[in-house]
Amino acid sequence: MSTETPALFKSIKVGAHHSSIASKTTSVPHNPLKDYYTQRASRPGTLLITESTFIAPQAAGFPNMPGIWSKEQIAAWKEPLKPRIPIHRTIPHPTIISPHAPSRELTTSENCRICACNAIEAGFDGVEIHGANGCLVDQFLQDVTNQRTDAYGGSIENRSRFALEIVGAVSKAIGADRVGIRLAPWSTFQEMRMKDPIPQFAHFVSTLKHAQPDLAYLHLIEPRIAGPDGDEHDTSNLHSGNDSVAESNDFLRAIWKPKALISAGGYIRESALIRAEEKGDIIAFGRRFIANPDLVDRLENDIPLTKYNRDTFYIPAEAPNAADGYVDYPFVEKN
């Protein structure tokens, strides 16, 4: 019987375990947040990625989501990031959301640069740019939303321009090794999904790799995920870790290798172990990490997971039951 540590739990540069977290998503971070991230950082070295975080008040397309543009917000984020709290791998998404408005002239690079610097001031290790799920970067990349006829639309190269400029501005401000980007080539969430996303995303990722060789990582949402509000739309391959023949992110893995790549896709223990071993991916857990603050220990020791409660995912911070389904999930008792 082999005693070698599975790839899922081996140390890597961007985090001490092949596990990461996406969390629940207030303009100012709220009180339970400190406990929430402290709990999920109970295993030293775990890479944590915070909820999507707006870069400006006019960019806030959804209620009850945090920001990182003001001094008040910076101060609030510092609480869960104090040195005495073992949460040293938390990365905010400077998400720019303006649904269905790709034709409006926008200048966001400066806001992204400022907010990236704010994140570092708050104590984060880096920034992940949210370029998936119909967010603004995603809208510029895909022809289903980008109908522009200027330098930012009309061709594959032009549609990549905006995202490349955003990554470039953030990388210049805080260092490319502190920056990642999240993409979802196959997602239909928020009316996205090109007829054939491969040429567009292949161009963007290959150009990005050349322009930013020190970028920390690429974060991909797998094809089987329908969106943050839905369950996995294809659960047939959750145990194998494989994607369908027609829809797969392997074309981006081939371009990006051997650099660090995070894969998010409704993983369970079996599929996470297989994907990490066969592809070398870092595996992201969202819903299951919400419900299991000691997820890494449970996965490593094959301990059954607590089932998440979707009804408590987006309770506003001011609600009397704000802690429900947030900081009240149990840890496994250790002998």
Instruction: Count the beta strands.
Output: 8
Unreliable stretches covering 5 or more consecutive residues: 22-26, 83-106
Order of helices and strands: EHEHEHEHHEHEHEHEHH
Instruction: Give the DSSP E fraction (strand runs of 2 or more residues).
Output: 5-15%
Helix content: 25-40%
Tell me what you see in this structure.
This protein is an alpha/beta fold and 335 residues long. Helix content is 30%, strand content 12%. It contains ten helices and eight strands. The chain has helices at 32-40, 71-78, 109-122, 136-141, 156-174, 198-211, 250-256, 269-279, 287-291, 295-300; strands at residues 19-21, 48-54, 90-95, 127-131, 179-183, 217-221, 261-264, 282-285. The protein has a six-stranded parallel beta sheet. α6 links the parallel β5 and β6. α2 packs parallel to α3, α5 (156-174) packs parallel to α6 and α6 (198-211) runs parallel beside α7 (250-256). The longest helix has 19 residues, at 156-174. The relative contact order is 0.14. Mean pLDDT is 81; it is low at 22-26 and 83-106.
